[in-house]
Design brief:
This protein is an alpha+beta fold. The protein folds into two domains: about 170 residues, Endonuclease I-creI, CATH 3.10.28.10; about 100 residues, no CATH class. About 60% of the residues lie in helices and about 15% in strands. It has a four-stranded antiparallel beta sheet with strand order 4-5-7-6. The protein has a three-stranded antiparallel beta sheet with strand order 1-3-2. A hairpin with a 2-residue loop joins strand 4 and strand 5. The longest helix has about 50 residues. The radius of gyration is 35 Å and the shape is rod-shaped.
Amino acid sequence: MGVNSSFSADAKDALARDVPEAPHCREALLASLAVYGCGTGANAFVTHRNAVARLFRSLALDERRSIVKVADARLMRAVGYRIDVPERLRAIPPKPMHRCDRVMEIRGAFLACGCVSAGRQGYHLEFVLRDRERAERLAWMLRALALPPKRMERKHRDVLYYKDFEAIVDVLTIVGAHGAVLHLSDIHALKETKNRIHRLVNTEAANLERTAAAAAAACRTIQYVESAYGLRNVSPVLREIAALRLAHPEENLAELGRRCNPPVGKPTVSSRLAALTRLAARLQRGRESRTSLRD
């Protein structure tokens, strides 16, 4: 079992142990399990979690009803748990009026046909419904208590799903899956920390690349001034910064400024290098003008 399937299974097992106290909430949860865990016209509730099957039997108040282990025809090597549904639960009931009963219906839908994951592809919470009637019903429930789910069709089944982290946390909080919420929050915090580190590393690498390119350009400029004019002919402060730039091409402007005598700030270093660049440009224009006159 993979990490994401284990995460979803753990969330369901935890919810299956959290039996509501109010009788009407227990009845709403039982009805929801029957609605979303049975196929159209089917008389059995089927789940991949034994804890959910035991919850169904406990809510149905019939401990004599047996849970049968079956093979899942759709998923290779997957095991399912089947339990017969009482006659009174085989029809789809009216939509519940009270908020707590709607919460229990969404919880039952998650236990019966839901799945949550958080992997490299991002966060995902989905409900795979057996027919359009159930999909419309659950979509209505979710809209009443949370953000509207997105919808698609997969292998002739309706799927309601969320991709947004906050929306997923909201739904899981509503149904009482607090352990899953904490786990998702830990994953989210870890991902955000890694992303921040990557951004900082990328920013630092880009800064180093820009510094190296600027330093190389400044060295070429200084070498041109040296050959075309002579550094002995520039002012002492420009001569000093030129010598420092050539001697320490890997250092940034602030570091060069600290080497000056007396030390100067980064803007001053930048200004002095810019003066050398302007001098090189004038020398270049003068050379081009003399070449043009000779031609």
